[in-house]
């Protein structure tokens, strides 16, 4: 049963620390760069974290698993922001959240609270948070240092997950080709394409914004326009072959692909998975390693089935390519994730 709860306005004086925290928390990556999370200060020490339903992906992310797991990414980013400012933060999850029960629509849903517990020695986190990016560029044709791989494996294991990387050229090429196939086959999905169009931006990449832009996507504007207007064109035999060859050129140099396995169903499991993924991503950044998630392989049922059979695992929830890359273009972020106005909240229970 849903209940609507009025959130009292926060005095201007209480916004102080939250403004600084929000400045770094906005750097958290989210699916399709939708940036659905907001910090709603209740006092100088306590704030709610809400998700805006109009920024979710109910068609592509049917049960809201991936968008809600990115709450964990956001919470981990917020914790890093706290340590950067010399503050210890504790996040408490809202109880009885059923991911699939959050229906499409508009308005915020409260997912948790974050509290400033005290002070700690300040640590430098801004640099790595700003440097962390997704790279769709060709990678350098060399393997990642084994010590970095061990660190990635340990981060996943410490959260009850498994990070399994593969360097066999046949495995790597199979994953790359099947990812292209999944991307092309998704052009048949009318509803998913309609949802995606809301987040496609065909212009020069701004500093402030959301969604998917040509620069960070490593895709020319004409191609994005053509794909949006005539999506099924890329399914024609000759054009499909050309598109596949062109896309694979952007994957040149890839020596590593990886899967992540582990619990990915309940609300607490999703948050743990998201926090782990952000820790892994930041570790990669510190080692000079970039990644590119292959989300289409998970949402495409045929590719998903192939993955589970090929890797002998039923608990794969993430697949990626990773390696050394030139510095990719930076995706834009909104100016703030601080909620400044009095709003209504819709807890789901």
What this model shows, in words?
- The protein is α+β, with helices and mostly antiparallel strands and 349 residues long.
- Helices cover 39% and strands 17% of the residues.
- The protein has 2 domains: 5-128 and 332-345, NADH Oxidase; 134-323, NADH Oxidase.
- The chain has helices at 16-25, 65-84, 126-131, 146-157, 169-185, 190-197, 214-217, 221-229, 237-250, 267-286, 295-299, 301-311; strands at 5-6, 37-41, 46-52, 87-93, 108-119, 162-166, 256-261, 290-293, 316-323, 344-345.
- It has a 4-stranded antiparallel beta sheet, with helices on one face.
- A hairpin with a 4-residue loop joins strand 2 and strand 3.
- Helix 2 (65-84) crosses helix 10 and helix 4 packs antiparallel against helix 10.
- The longest helix has 20 residues, at 65-84.
- The radius of gyration is 20 Å and the shape is globular.
- Mean pLDDT is 92; it is low at 1-8 and 341-349.
Task: Report the sheet with the most strands, covering strand number, pairing sense and barrel closure.
Answer: 4 strands, antiparallel
CATH architecture of the largest domain: 3-Layer(aba) Sandwich
Number of strands: 10
Shape category: globular
The overall average pLDDT, rounded, is: 92
Looking at the structure, the CATH topology of the largest domain is NADH Oxidase
Tell me the fraction of residues in β-strands, as a range: 15-25%
Query: What structural class do helix, strand and pairing data support?
Result: alpha+beta
List the helices and strands in order. EHEEHEEHHEHHHHHEHEHHEE
Domain tally: 2
CATH class of the largest domain: Alpha Beta
Please tell me how large the radius of gyration is: 20 Å
Q: Helix proportion of residues, in percent?
A: 25-40%
Q: How far is it from the N-terminal to the C-terminal residue, by CA? A: 6 Å
Question: Considering the protein shown, what is the CATH homologous superfamily of the largest domain?
Answer: NADH Oxidase
Number of helices: 12
- The spatial strand order of the largest sheet comes to 2-3-5-4
pLDDT below 50 for ≥5 consecutive residues: which ranges? 1-8, 341-349
């Amino acid at each position: 049963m849903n209940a609507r709860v009025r959130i009292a306005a926060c005095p201007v004086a209480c916004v102080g620390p939250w403004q600084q925290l929000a400045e770094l928390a906005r750097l958290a990556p989210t699916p399709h760069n939708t940036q659905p999370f907001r910090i709603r200060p209740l006092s100088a020490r306590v704030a709610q974290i809400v998700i805006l339903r109009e920024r979710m992906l109910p068609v592509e992310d049917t049960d809201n698993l991936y968008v809600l797991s990115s709450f964990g990414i956001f919470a981990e980013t917020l914790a890093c922001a706290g340590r950067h400012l010399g503050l210890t933060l504790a996040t408490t999850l809202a109880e009885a959240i059923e991911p699939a029960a959050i229906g499409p629509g508009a308005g915020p849903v409260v997912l948790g609270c974050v509290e400033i517990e005290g002070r700690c020695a300040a640590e430098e986190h801004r640099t790595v948070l700003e440097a962390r990016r997704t790279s769709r560029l060709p990678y350098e044709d060399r393997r990642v240092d084994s010590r970095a791989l061990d660190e990635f494996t340990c981060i996943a294991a410490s959260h009850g997950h498994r990070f399994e990387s593969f360097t066999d050229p046949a495995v790597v090429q199979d994953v790359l080709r099947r990812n292209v196939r999944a991307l092309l086959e998704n052009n048949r999905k009318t509803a998913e394409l309609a949802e995606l169009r809301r987040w496609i931006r065909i212009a020069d990449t701004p500093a402030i914004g959301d969604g998917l832009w040509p620069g960070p996507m490593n895709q020319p504007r004409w191609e994005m326009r053509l794909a949006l207007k005539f999506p099924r064109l890329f399914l024609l035999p000759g054009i499909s072959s050309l598109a596949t060859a062109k896309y694979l050129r952007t994957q040149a140099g890839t020596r590593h692909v990886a899967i992540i396995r582990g619990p990915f169903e309940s609300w607490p499991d999703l948050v743990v998975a998201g926090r782990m993924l952000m820790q892994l991503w930041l570790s990669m950044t510190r080692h000079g390693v970039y990644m590119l998630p292959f989300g289409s392989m998970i949402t495409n049922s045929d590719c998903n089935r192939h993955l589970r059979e090929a890797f002998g695992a039923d608990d794969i929830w993430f697949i990626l390519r990773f390696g050394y890359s030139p510095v990719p273009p930076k995706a834009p972020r909104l100016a703030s994730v601080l909620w400044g106005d009095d709003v209504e909240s819709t807890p789901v229970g």
